[in-house]
Every structure is written in structure tokens, then in C-alpha cells.
Specification:
The chain has six helices and no strands. The chain has 133 residues and is an all-alpha fold. Helix 1 runs antiparallel to helix 2 and helix 2 packs across helix 3. It is globular, with a radius of gyration of 17 Å. The relative contact order is 0.08.
Length: 133
């Protein structure tokens, strides 16, 4: 299926938006570009199937690619009780460890629950908007 020039332009804009997202997440230039290219590939494949691109689909692909990158570049961390969180002194190593533990906890949630949390905390959706979602 041939894709219209307008759609290719949109695809290119989404690539740059994805790259900026990955850079804000702390990925270096090359990793951000690689992840954005993966997002573009997913979107192109969907377009070739004749499907339309929605904002929610774009963000789902974006989050999925980021989660895949983090999973591939993060060691699995043992779960700790929230009771131990109050003992975090705020040192850099403690904060990194806590961050990895939170990621591990998020991975244990269902995909739907994770998506709700990400939409609220990353995308700024209100609880009312999520309830309607």
C-alpha cells in the first residue's frame, strides 16, 4: 500500500517527537534516535496495514519502546518493602536503587494498570479523564 506524502510528513514529525521524548528520559543521542526509529517502524507498519494513527496508539508505542529499552539495559532488582523506603538517606546510590525498585514494581502491574499510571504521571491526564478512558 502506498502512503501519502502527508502521512509520511506526519510520520517524520512523530519520529522527532519520539526522539525528544527519549532524550528527556535521559537516553543519549544515539539510543534516542534508535528508539525513535523503532517507534517510526511500528507506526509505518500500522499505516501500511491501512490503520489510522491515533494519539493514544502513538503514546502506547512510545511507552512500549521505552519500556523495552529500559528492560534491556536494567538489571533486575530484588523487591523491597515500602517500610524500607523511609530509610532512604537521599544519597545518589540509594535514589538509583529506589528508582530501579519502583520500575521493578511497575513491571509487576498489569499492562492496563501501568498504562493508567503512565497516562496520569507522564502525560498529565486527570483522574476524571482516566475514568472516562
Amino acid at each position: 500500500m502506498e502512503i501519502a506524502k502527508e502521512m509520511l510528513d506526519t510520520l517524520e514529525q512523530l519520529f522527532h517527537q519520539a526522539k525528544r521524548f527519549f532524550q528527556r528520559k535521559g537516553l543519549n543521542e544515539q539510543d534516542a534516535e534508535d528508539c525513535a526509529a523503532e517507534v517510526r517502524l511500528h507506526l509505518l507498519h500500522r499505516m501500511q496495514q491501512g490503520a489510522t494513527l491515533s494519539k493514544s496508539y502513538f503514546f502506547a508505542v512510545l511507552r512500549g519502546c521505552y519500556a523495552d529499552f529500559v528492560a534491556a539495559h536494567t538489571e533486575k532488582v530484588a523487591f523491597i518493602s515500602l517500610d524500607n523506603v523511609k530509610n532512604i538517606s537521599g544519597g545518589e546510590e540509594d535514589i538509583i536503587l529506589l528508582t530501579l525498585q519502583v520500575r521493578s514494581a511497575l513491571e509487576q502491574l498489569s499492562e492496563a494498570d501501568r498504562e493508567l499510571l503512565l497516562l496520569h504521571y507522564e502525560e498529565g491526564y486527570t483522574l476524571a479523564e482516566l475514568a472516562a478512558h
